[in-house]
Amino acid sequence: MDFGLTADQRKRYGDILGSARRLHRPPAVSGSHAGRGAWRAAAELGLTGLCLPEEHGGGGLGALDTALCLEAATAGGADTGLAFGIAAHLLACGVPISNFAGREVRADLLKGMAATPLIAANAMTEDGAGSDVSLLSTTAEPDGDAYVLNGVKSFVSNGPIADVFVTYAVTDRTAGYLGISAFAVPAGLAGIAVGAPLAKMGLHGCAAARVEFTECRVPARYRLGREGQGSAVFQGSMAWERACLPAIYLGVLDNQLRQCAAHARQRRQFGRDIGGFQAISHKLAIMKQRLESARLLLYRACWLLDDGSEDPVVPAALSKVAVSEAAVANGLDAIQIFGATGYLTESGIEQQLRDAVPSAIFSGTTEIQREMIAREVLA
């Protein structure tokens, strides 16, 4: 494996790194989120269409290049919540639409998603179906040339501002995993009710809400793949999401480490820079080690997804665990290095920790990732 980036990758990374500051938001309070203006700015940088097909206005990038761009955005100062919302729009929604929608729907939706007059939201999780997707209660009953959806989805990222929902529903209760179907549901259809934005611990830049479908008639052309293929559609999108989305934290960790090092050089106690104390310098060394270890695992997972020669499920699980644990641990260390200042909202340091905590939950919890890793070890 070649560990060096190509000239094109370095240029793309540098271009986004230098422009991403316009996507920065001041420390946010729970309930606030990035609006369409921020999404339009992200679209101007090409972020909302990274891995979408070029023929529909996207960047046509593979998994590794997509991850590098997401990393560059947050390293350059983009709001982590906004970056998370963009990644969900691309990976949990754009990938399955690109791979499984019919030609007409595919062209219509992807063109809008790349330019971002159209924002997509992933509506999979339910109150009773988180890690165990076999417990989905939302149903889709065939009715002529349409399906009638009924059910409630929870924690729908981008839900309050979405123009289309990629959702999953049971079409045959007797068929288990083969009885789930996937749909791209336009938000303007009758029978869709979007709740108020959820108050969250972090990732405030990404609005999330509950979404209820009540006798929502969805034309059959908006089904993704064949009837009963929903589980395969979902797993395909999860391969991309688990491999690429955590890259937003690599950028955060890189920027965070620079902030901590600068503070350690400037802050003086007992007549010397605090970076001269081993208690601080070793923290910085460990933070660097966690970052670089996580980065290598994530790049490898994305490279394998692009290469196609090896199942990327376990490599992606390994990288997601490494990135999420590094994000939380380094977030705690950053607050300790900054001391009382790091605890203040205005510093932005404590927000990095709040944004990091959900990384161990979304896209499959750390416990689920370890189960997948253990199955391979024990096979």
Largest β sheet strand count, sense and barrel closure: 4 strands, mixed
Strand content: 5-15%
CATH superfamily of the largest domain: Butyryl-CoA Dehydrogenase, subunit A, domain 3
Secondary-structure element pattern, one letter each: HHHHHEEEEEEEEHHEEHHHHH
Task: Provide the residue-averaged pLDDT.
Answer: 94
> Alpha-carbon distance between the termini?
26 Å
Helix fraction by DSSP (H/I, runs of at least 4): 40-55%
**Radius of gyration of CA atoms, rounded to a whole number:** 21 Å
| Uncertain stretches of 5 or more adjacent residues | none
Summed up, what is this model?
This protein is of the alpha+beta class. The protein contains twelve helices and ten strands. Helix 7 (247-266) packs antiparallel against helix 8.
What does this structure look like?
The protein has 379 residues and is an alpha+beta fold. The protein folds into three domains: 7-118, Acyl-CoA dehydrogenase/oxidase, N-terminal domain (Butyryl-Coa Dehydrogenase, subunit A, domain 1), CATH 1.10.540.10; 121-226, Butyryl-CoA Dehydrogenase, subunit A, domain 2 (Beta Barrel), CATH 2.40.110.10; 246-378, Butyryl-CoA Dehydrogenase, subunit A, domain 3 (Up-down Bundle), CATH 1.20.140.10. Helix content is 49%, strand content 15%. It has helices at 7-19, 36-44, 63-75, 80-100, 103-115, 230-244, 247-266, 278-307, 313-338, 340-343, 349-356, 366-378; strands at residues 120-123, 139-143, 146-157, 164-170, 180-186, 192-194, 208-219, 223-224, 268-269, 272-273. The protein has a four-stranded mixed sheet with strand order 1-4-5-8. α3 packs parallel to α7, α8 (278-307) packs antiparallel against α9 (313-338) and α9 (313-338) crosses α12.
